[in-house]
From TrEMBL:
PANTHER family: ACYL-COA N-ACYLTRANSFERASE (PTHR43626), GCN5-RELATED N-ACETYLTRANSFERASE 2, CHLOROPLASTIC (PTHR43626:SF4). This is GNAT family N-acetyltransferase. GO terms for cellular component: cytoplasm. Residues 1-134 form the N-acetyltransferase domain. One of its GO terms (molecular function) is N-acetyltransferase activity. The keyword Protein biosynthesis does not apply. InterPro entries: Acyl_CoA_acyltransferase, GNAT_dom, NSI-like. Keywords: Acyltransferase, Transferase.
Length: 134
């Protein structure tokens, strides 16, 4: 597995299969735009297929705060330590930041606790009609 902190060399066709279960997922082109506009990105690339198989993103002010909106690994690549490696690499990238926040479903709380994160309350607003990014 190859890990990289940039989208250099990444094309939309390398981003197929993400956002599993979303009723209106972003297209690979929109996914690439999402990665490009993130403050920090770490990608997991299968060297044999030249395909992105996992990614994590952060948006940050670069001073005190960062938010991790996405961590995703393709279903056929799960349970191989890829997500764990992506989180470790992102935390290293954000090591100088005071607060690193993310929102997750209750069933993922134990997963993120393993990285030293604590459960907190949060509020959200979802505009599902905009889910595809278009």
């Amino acid at each position: 597995m190859l890990y990289q902190n940039s989208i250099e060399g990444i094309e939309p066709e390398m981003l197929v299969g993400f956002f599993d279960g979303w009723p209106t997922p972003p297209s690979p082109e929109t996914h690439l735009k999402l990665l490009k506009n993130s403050s920090t990105v770490v990608l997991a690339i299968d060297k044999d297929t030249d395909r992105v198989v996992g990614f994590i993103t952060a948006v940050s002010d670069g001073v005190l705060s960062a938010y991790i909106p996405f961590l995703e690994v393709l279903p056929e690549y799960k349970n191989r330590g890829i997500g764990k490696e992506l989180v470790h690499r992102m935390m290293a990238e954000l090591a100088e930041i005071y607060m690193i926040d993310l929102c997750c479903d209750d069933d993922l709380v134990p997963y993120y606790k393993r990285f030293g994160m604590i459960k907190a309350n949060g509020m959200l607003l979802r505009n599902y009609e905009k889910q595809s990014g278009i």
